[in-house]
Structures are given as C-alpha cells and as structure tokens.
Amino acid sequence: MKENSEAYATLGKLDTLGRESSIPKKLQELIKIYASSLNHCAFCIDMHTKEALENGESIQRVVGVNAWREAPFYSDQERVVLELVEEVTFIHQHGVSDAVYSELEKHYDEKQIGELYLLIATINAYNRLGIMSQLQPKEDK
C-alpha cells in the first residue's frame, strides 16, 4: 500500500462513492461480507462483519449470509443482490446471467444497479489486494 499509495487512494475514492450511494448501509455490508467470504479474504470478512454489526445488522443475518438461499430472513431485493455478488465474484465461470439482471430490474433502477456494480467490483478488488498482500485480521481481545 505504501509503495503505490496513489492507486490505493483511487480505489478508496471508488469505495467512498459506493458508501455514499443510495444502497442501504446494511445491504452494502452484506455485499462486502458475502463477496469477501466467497473470495476467502479473512481480513475483509472481519472488518465488514464488525461494520455491519455497528450499523445495526443482526448477528443472525451476518452469520447466515453464506446460506442466504436457505435462510428465511433475507428479502427478495437482498436475495437478487447476493446472487449478483456471486455471479460477479465468479464472473469467469458464467458471466452475469440475464435472469439475475431481469430480477434486479424489478427491484432497482438503472442508477442503483450501477451503484451495486460499483460496490461489488470494489470489494472484489479489495479482496484480491488483501489476499495478495497477505493481510490478516487482528485477533479480538
């Protein structure tokens, strides 16, 4: 990070745009936790779990996000976003399906869909940088 601070600052600007978007803060954190989990980024899982709880998210929904399909406590609007997170995170496998995009359009306008894309792309970039840099969360005391 210190060797390429300008690049990290630019990524930070994208993160700020995502945080200031119209997407609810709780959903933003679920996006970040789920993508980080799919990418196995322990540092980001730790950080965003704590941020979600600080923003009033329930422990049940934070812990259950990896089983969102089976869990009854996510709305249809959240479910399609979590599906999008998965498809974007694993975009190399099948791309983003027309079915997911069609479902997104039922719940979000074009601006919000763009904001979701930004949030998902940014956390995926952070995950990859965190993993490559071998960032580790500090153990809670």
Question: Which features does this protein show?
Answer:
141 residues; mainly alpha; AhpD-like; 8 helices; 0% strand
Show the helix and strand layout.
Elements: H1 5-19, H2 25-39, H3 42-54, H4 59-64, H5 76-89, H6 91-94, H7 98-107, H8 110-132
Task: Explain the overall architecture.
The chain has helices at 5-19, 25-39, 42-54, 59-64, 76-89, 91-94, 98-107, 110-132. The longest helix has 23 residues, at 110-132. It is mainly α and 141 residues long. The protein is globular and about 45 Å long. Helix 2 (25-39) runs antiparallel to helix 3, helix 2 packs parallel to helix 5 (76-89) and helix 2 packs across helix 8 (110-132). It has one domain (5-132): AhpD-like.
Major pleated sheet: none
Residue runs with pLDDT of under 50 for 5 or more positions: none
Q: How many helices in DSSP terms? A: 8
Q: In the CATH classification, which architecture applies?
A: Up-down Bundle
Percent helix? over 70%
Corresponding CATH superfamily: AhpD-like
Instruction: Give me the count of strands.
Output: 0
What's the domain count? 1
End-to-end gap: 26 Å
SSE order, one letter for each helix or strand? HHHHHHHH
Task: Provide the gyration radius in Å.
Answer: 15 Å
Return the average pLDDT rounded to an integer.
Answer: 93
Give the C-level CATH assignment.
Mainly Alpha
The general outline is globular
State the CATH topology. Answer: AhpD-like
Question: What structural category arises from helix and sheet content?
Answer: mainly alpha
Percentage beta strand: under 5%
Pfam families: CMD
Keywords: Oxidoreductase, Peroxidase
GO molecular function, one term: peroxiredoxin activity
Protein name: Alkylhydroperoxidase
